[in-house]
Amino acid sequence: MSVVDTDFSILSEDFAAAPDRFFAQLREQRPVHYEPAIDSYFVSRHEDVKRVLTDHELFTTQNLQVRAEPVMRGPVLAQMTGAEHTAKRRIVVRAFTGSALQDQIRVIHANAAELIAPFLPLGRVDLVNDFGKPFGMHVTLDVLGLDRKDWQQVAAWHSGVAEFITGLNLTPERRRHCVGQAERLEAYLLPVIEQRRRDPGDDLISQLCTAEFDGVAMTGREVTALIINVLVAATEPADKTLALLFKHLIDHPEQMAQVRRDPDLLGAAIAETLRYTPPVQLIPRQAEKDAEFAGTTVPAGATIFCMIGAANRDPDAFSAPDTFDIHRADLGTARSFTAAAQHLAFGTGLHQCVGTAFARAELETVAGMLLPLLDRVHYSPGFRYQETGLYTRGPVALSLDFTPVR
Which residue among 49, 147, 235, 280 is least enclosed by CB atoms within 10 Å? Predict the structure, then answer.
């Protein structure tokens, strides 16, 4: 009996409840799935997703002008090509690699220690809402050089930006609301940008303000767009991937025990979490010319969504793909955080996520700190697990009990 029928829709409640139940049928029966309500095509096989993400001539990021620019308040990295892309990407990457990354690991550790402290004597924490969300915001604000006390306000504006980018069929009211939130975020950032131009520090905003491209400093609009770009991208993995990592290890106690015994396995556990349940489930591109997949033609100008979750569970790319296994031979932990990764959680090719090294450092630092503190960790009594999100996906909450730390 097949789940996919003629009325099947990726926008349906059934799909939203458990997308992974439909991945195999999509790959096998409709590798190119058309959604008339949003006039978009969805590709789900690993080879097709990889092709779309690596063929930059045929599949461009042109549609981000409509999908992202209105709330980013300017062009984002993924829209750029050529010398401009290389130069601006390098500025951002520098803030997330090398010696800068070593400084940030200290910031990550300090933020995590401060946020988890009040919960240790209680022996209970919601890893998403008590910890992950504020943690992701705190760290990102520290990197940017913004005031951490503003995190809840910035988070509210940020959620409007994220909703706009990830909403597949927003009503005109929601679109207006989201753009309003983005405008307020921009108004908050502009005086900061002006101040950093006059008096730069060693934070990322100062680096963006003082960097030059072709001998010309970036405009306030360009800097704003890159700041919002970083804000949206850097806060995603913290609450979602961290909570998913703990969920999978709790669900697989023998693997949890192995990671506790051998912390060197943590990188593999994070990489397998990203493969098995990637926080970013969809990546959009635009077909510049007619493109054929599995005998179906996607017309020029059409929007194509790459289904990362489905591609990461493709048996042509991974053996026993629906099994969570930190020891899988086809993962390649060392490769998993580079452009050579077999899983596609960070995208791939030219526009692969700039924060890949940072995400790894952040997750390894935090999980490495939390695992020994959360002894005998298990779901809180009565807790019911639920995930949400179509474009980005993660747990609504993750309430955990553990041995209180005296």
Answer: 147
